[in-house]
Amino acid sequence: MTAPQSVVVAVTGASGAVYARRLLEILIDRVPLVYFTMSVRGCQVLNYELGTDLSMKRFDATPLLGRQPENLLFFHPADFNAPFASGQTKVSGVSAGATQSWSVTVSADITGQFSCKVINVNRTAAGTQTLN
């Protein structure tokens, strides 16, 4: 399988900030372009659970990741000009938040087939469905 060229990570207000941070740490070292967005509640949960001081107005990844990676692009959730907002930009995968128990990932392969994976945090696949 070809390594993804771009991925969208969207953090919601669900608990599980340590998983969101770890996912970002892994992706910024392996994927050329990581789009990142979070809801207001997602920002609050990250700050509460990780003891960070992230801001939606002037995002800086340093409190979250210890650095500001060049390949991490933050977009405010109200920014309809974000490349992934219209669906026109092709991305290799989307991670729509994580909870303490589950992560949901939607991705597409080279043939255009989409798969939806529900992953248990103990790293066993709970279920996979391929969508045509």
Which architecture would the CATH scheme give at its second level?
A: 3-Layer(aba) Sandwich
Shape: globular
Q: What is the CATH H-level superfamily?
A: Flavin prenyltransferase-like
The side-by-side strand order for the widest beta sheet comes to 3-2-1-4-5-6-7
Note poorly predicted spans: 98-132
* Sequence of secondary-structure elements: EHEHHEEEEE
How many structurally independent domains? 1
Describe the structure.
By secondary structure, the chain is an alpha/beta fold. It has a single domain (6-131), classed as Rossmann fold, CATH 3.40.50.1950. Helix content is 22%, strand content 32%. The protein is built from 3 helices and 7 strands, in the order βαβααβββββ. The chain has a 7-stranded mixed sheet. β4 (93-98) and β5 (102-108) form a beta hairpin. The two termini are 19 Å apart.
